[in-house]
């Protein structure tokens, strides 16, 4: 076993003093762990901004008619809420924060394959964020198209569509570079003895995700470029008056944006696959099933984009093919849930905060998944398309899924990242508040949607008000819980007790090195002789 | 910018660099794939008008460009072979020819586009907007795809020029030539894209 | 690891490949003078694909490349084709 006591001359990556001091020691650093933290702070900031926009929308929806804003403002709000949450938070999310922080350590490497490219990708991300901010403040006003930028409205609207689509384009480039870096790292830098089937499942997840980042993102890149060219030069691809086809825009848009949701969820499932064995003190059940299901989800995920377009006018053959494959993609996800539950069976369960979040993930993701069958079925989708039902569906899957996995990951790896511990009781209270708030926020939306409440509408018929008020109150409770969570973590960083190297008794490589890790991760590169979840 | 003390003991991994370049090439293939998809959809919708549009393109210049690019692909591959055989002079000569071919290609493009601009045919022009819809889409695609391709020619030229300078300076040599190998790979990609662009725009008569 | 198996492709091979490519180009230009309707596109695309194959195999050294990278290329090309086919399931049957 590797000696987890701090070796002589140990300096943590947080305290390491290199060529630069102050802020430059961080923004010029090519250390994957520092880059991971840079992303963490940006993403937390943008998530908070996006959440505040969500809260503003919830306040507006407390009553029919204008409550605190008019329709144009509301349209701008749901657009930027989507752009921030999707492109700045959830797509990069787990990959750039925890993939950067931990993937190299989990494979026994000192860093990623291209550390300077890694830092460059963060700069590109920041440039994308700046463009997104610019889209809100430039002369023509924030875009009001929704984050989906559908033609022909996105061609006709006078608002700052080019800045916003430019932001998404730049952010996509950052995503591609990260994916490229991670694929090469995993192929070339695994420690001796670590075959693909001895990698931790989070690494499998990051690997599958990196392929989607690499191969799907260029399509949204070229599509947004087409949109920009059409706005500037009337090239006509998507404008019916010029012979173009708006549905073609939808095809191109969703050819990326559907696989993008797997960029969001695969690392999340990877995190769950790490947390559950640790807090059951038992080896993962169905390692190969989970590994292969990640690849299967990535693969089949490319075939089903049309399920966002059932009512757009596609051919009958197309819509039933898309529906069929949509049902099929649920199967590998179910395989994972089965394996996680199988892992917990007869395990020694410890309900610490990471485990609470992991169990919440399973619950919320399943609700989201089942509601996906409703929207995935042709006849039922016609009823609920573009209603609040869809809003509930994707928030359960993305927010309940990726979001809760993110919360779980930060609580799981916090002691390793900072060498300190947060208060467990406060974390539990924050969890309870967010979990209850979340369900009150989104469950009513299923019902409202089935009753006919449309999405992206700032006004509504009076019969929907009760549901909307419950939803808004749930949102407020959620935000309060989230604030407590962040406060707890910040206090843990500033005043928390020193954390040991392996507080949760995990078996993967990150727990075998000091907390926080030294700059180059390992004194000596380990030689791997067993599978990763080697619990006795 | 990179701190010297980091990762000191690690030997250079050329295979990783090559793999990285191939992965980047995949992203470029998929970038153009979106445009080829749009082309296919509108060609399917407006076959006659696309045919008419193709008649207005100069097959001679297009063919010449194709030949020039194929030759340049061979010369850059040969340049790599020369480097691997430690023949610095030959590597430089072949690389120079490659870059020259690129310039010829760009010059031809300039002539072609210039001719169209003189007729009043360019993206957003009045003439263009008055065309029949399939005809408009053909030329929109023509300008967009050949323009994006030309941008990639320029990028490729820059990479190969940097390689050229490094070979002359001696910082690129038989023990360290990944930039040349990867630059050549990128150049072949640019050639590959044109191999498909050429028949789809010039030869559908 | 620094060592790649450096297979050096001979000047002769590269020269022959260029000749093949130029020949195929000539064929593809000449075929357009016959009106074969839908077959014109098919032939043009097939010839382009063959040219592409030669460029990838010989100029880009895929012939001597590691299995992993060759597998990558097949996956990417398959993805490209799949996306095309699925999109046309919409357009063909509207």
For this entry, give a set of tags.
heterotrimer; A: 536 residues; mainly alpha; Cytochrome C Oxidase, Chain A; globular; B: 205 residues; Four Helix Bundle (Hemerythrin (Met), subunit A)
Quick take:
With about 525 residues, chain A is mainly alpha-helical.
How would you characterize this protein structure?
The complex is a heterotrimer of chains A (536), B (205) and C (94). Chain A has one domain (30-512): Cytochrome C Oxidase, Chain A (Up-down Bundle), CATH 1.20.210.10. Chain A has 16 helices and two strands. In chain A, strands 1-2 form a two-stranded antiparallel sheet. The longest helix of chain A has 35 residues, at 246-280. Chain A has 536 residues and is mainly alpha-helical. In chain B, 80% of the residues lie in helices and 0% in strands. Chain B is built from seven helices and no strands. In chain B, helix 2 crosses helix 6. Chain B is elongated, with a radius of gyration of 20 Å. Residues 1-6 of chain B have low confidence and may be disordered. Chain C is mainly α. Chain C has one domain (11-92). Chain C is built from three helices and no strands. The longest helix of chain C is centred in the C-terminal third of the chain and has 26 residues, at 67-92. Chain A binds chain B through residues 18-19, 28-31, 110-111, 113-116, 176, 180-181, 183-184, 187-189, 214-219, 221-223, 226, 229, 232-237, 242-245, 248, 252, 255, 519-520, and chain B through 1-7, 10, 13, 15-16, 19-20, 23-24, 26-28, 30-35, 37-38, 41-42, 45-46, 123-124, 128-129, 133-134, 136-137, 140, 143-144.
Assembly type of the shown chains?
heterotrimer
Order of helices and strands of chain A: HHHHHHHHHHHHHHEHHE
The number of distinct β-strands of chain B equals 0
Cα-to-Cα separation, first versus last residue of chain B: 55 Å
The low-confidence runs of chain B, each spanning 5 or more residues with pLDDT under 50, are: 1-6
Fold blueprint:
The complex is a heterotrimer of chains A (536), B (205) and C (94).
Chain A (H helix, E strand, L loop, with lengths): L23 H4 L4 H29 L10 H20 L2 H14 L8 H23 L15 H4 L4 H28 L12 H33 L12 H35 L6 H14 L15 H29 L8 H24 L1 H7 L3 H31 L1 E2 L2 H28 L13 H31 L1 E2 L38
Antiparallel strand pairs in A: 1-2
Chain B lengths: L13 H32 L1 H9 L3 H26 L3 H31 L7 H5 L2 H37 L8 H25 L3
Chain C lengths: L10 H21 L6 H22 L7 H26 L2
